[in-house]
Write a structure and sequence with these properties.
The chain is of the alpha+beta class. Helix content is about 40%, strand content about 10%.
Length: about 55
């Protein structure tokens, strides 16, 4: 999975990404590896139903 994250980074080195946001839990692990490869923070969002929490 880490190699896949690095592959995403290598495809476009011109990007100037400063942080990443993910709200899809199934894609969370890949986003962690991508943000680790480009050394930016990641923010996880969680959807909840009205009235929870």
């Amino acid at each position: 999975m880490k190699a896949i994250g690095q592959m995403f980074v290598n495809t476009d080195k011109r990007s100037s990404i400063s942080k990443a946001v993910t709200i899809e839990p199934s894609g969370g692990s890949l986003s962690v590896y991508i943000t680790e490869a480009i050394s930016v923070p990641i923010i996880f969002g969680k959807k909840y139903k009205h009235g929870e929490g």
